[in-house]
């Protein structure tokens, strides 16, 4: 039984890892296609039908470009920066429940790599580690623009993680659990999605997610108009590719977490009224989950080509003077509503 369990988890980890890389790879194409659509042009359309081979061409370019390490750089830390960034991005999805249970023969398989009772804390902890990759890369480059981008990234991450954590506290007051699997299980039925009971918390969370992923309008750490290329100015070849990949993986994982916490995860309307077997409901649930994730990824891309970039002082003011007070007010409001509900209902 232990051997079968290990094989199941190994297969699941492999599938999730490959899917994550493929989605991140084709998110680069989707980004350019969305940009083309919003700017009334085609976007990439030369490499393969409709440009579907463009990510492979981009990957080949990264692999075969010359590897350059600046003469004044700290070599080991220069290499460690993108390594930490990609590793933390890839392992952050370990606690996400991708679907209900699958029954194959006499085996019942959970579609979750690790079901830990503090899943949300795990996600926050891993995301917090990711900024070390950016800081090391910016400092080890021995470039003032890279260092400035790294300092911006660290300040931005610290500022917005506070508001994000406070928004999650209000959600935990409603769900009474830190397990992402339990939170998703509580949202069976469209009316039970947490977005209906925590709309303000969701708005704060999604705003902070944009900042944590360094997405426009919060892409100040790599602001090319001010900092050349930000913290990865001196990077080339696949090291630059790893930084870019980590950003798209973070966007994918953030979309998955938002879908799981606020939009029911793998739950979909009328799932218990279809009269299908559990395996079919699980498969449809997985597809519904990924549909929600792709919708959020499109939202990330839509915002990029819609809103202008903030000034850095506006970015910090939004985090400290608006989002954090709003998140605290949301906690107080949630507490009052919960108290009234428990007292009178």
TrEMBL record:
It is a multi-pass membrane protein. Its main location: membrane. InterPro entries: NADH_UbQ_OxRdtase_su1/FPO, NADH_UbQ_OxRdtase_su1_CS. NDH-1 shuttles electrons from NADH, via FMN and iron-sulfur (Fe-S) centers, to quinones in the respiratory chain. The immediate electron acceptor for the enzyme in this species is believed to be ubiquinone. Couples the redox reaction to proton translocation (for every two electrons transferred, four hydrogen ions are translocated across the cytoplasmic membrane), and thus conserves the redox energy in a proton gradient. This subunit may bind ubiquinone. It is found in: Cell membrane; Membrane. One of its GO terms (molecular function) is NADH dehydrogenase activity. PROSITE patterns: COMPLEX1_ND1_2. It catalyses: a quinone + NADH + 5 H(+)(in) = a quinol + NAD(+) + 4 H(+)(out). One of its GO terms (biological process) is aerobic respiration. NDH-1 is composed of 14 different subunits. Subunits NuoA, H, J, K, L, M, N constitute the membrane sector of the complex. Keywords: Cell membrane, Membrane, NAD, Quinone, Translocase, Transmembrane, Transmembrane helix, Ubiquinone. GO terms for cellular component: plasma membrane. It comes from the Bacteria. The keyword Coiled coil does not apply. Its EC number is 7.1.1.-. The chain crosses the membrane at residues 6-29, 77-99, 119-139, 160-178, 190-211, 248-268, 280-302, 322-340. Belongs to the complex I subunit 1 family. This is NADH-quinone oxidoreductase subunit H.
